[in-house]
Amino acid sequence: MDPSKCRESESSTCKRLLEVAAELFAEKGYAQTSVRDITSAAGCNLAAVNYHYGSKEKLYEEIFCQMMTLWREERIQAIETVMAEADREGILERLLRAFASTFVGQLAGSEGNGKKLTNLFLREVTDPHLPAGIFAREIALPTRESLGQALMQICPRLTKAQTQSCLHSLVGQLTHAIHARRLLGEAMGSQTPFDDLEAFVEHIVRFTAAGIREYLKQKET
User: Fold this and answer.
1) Of 5, 76, 88, 120, which residue is most buried, by most CB within 10 angstroms?
2) What is the mean pLDDT of each successive set of 10 residues along the chain, which is 221 residues long?
3) Is residue 191 left, alpha or beta, with left meaning phi > 0 and alpha meaning psi from -120 to 50?
C-alpha cells in the first residue's frame, strides 16, 4: 500500500474517532462511554483507540486540547482585533464586548457542534477527568494575560492586581449568566433575564465598564 495513502487513512480514522468520541462523551459522559462504544460508532477496530491515542483517557484529553486551543485562539484574536483598531472612542466597551461575546458564544452553543462542545465542557466541570490545572494552563491563563495587558493599556492607572480583580469579576458574571440560563430556564419554565443572552451580555459589558470607570474615579480622589 502507498505510504501516503496509509497516512491519509490513519488521519481519517483519527479524525473519525475524535468526532465520534466527542459526541458520545457529550451525550453520555466519560464514565458511561466505553472504548467499544466509540470504535463501534466510528466503524473502527476495537484496538483503534489504543493504537492511535494510547487509551480512552488520552483520547478524551486530546479532544479537550483541540477544543481549548481553538477557544484560546478565538478569544485572543478577538482581543487583538479590537486593540489594533485606530478608533479609540469607546474602546473599553468594545474590548469587553469582544471578549464577552466570544466567551459566551463558545460556552453557550445551542445548536450543532456548539451544543456538543458546551455539553462536553459542562460535563467535565461537574465530573472532572482531565489532569488538574489543564484549563488554567491551556486557556484561562493565556487569555487572562492577553486581556489584562489590553485593559492596562486602555486604563494605565490600574495596577496588575486591580486589573485581574476586574477580569475575575467579568468572567464570573459571564459564567453565571451561562449557567443561570441553562438551569433557571429549565427549572422556572418562564421568561428569565437570561433568555436574551446577547442583551444580558451587553448589560454585563456596560455594568463592568461603568464599574471600572468608577473605580478609576475613586483613585483620583
Assistant:
1) 120
2) 40 90 94 96 93 94 92 96 93 97 82 73 89 92 96 93 93 87 60 73 95 82 59
3) beta
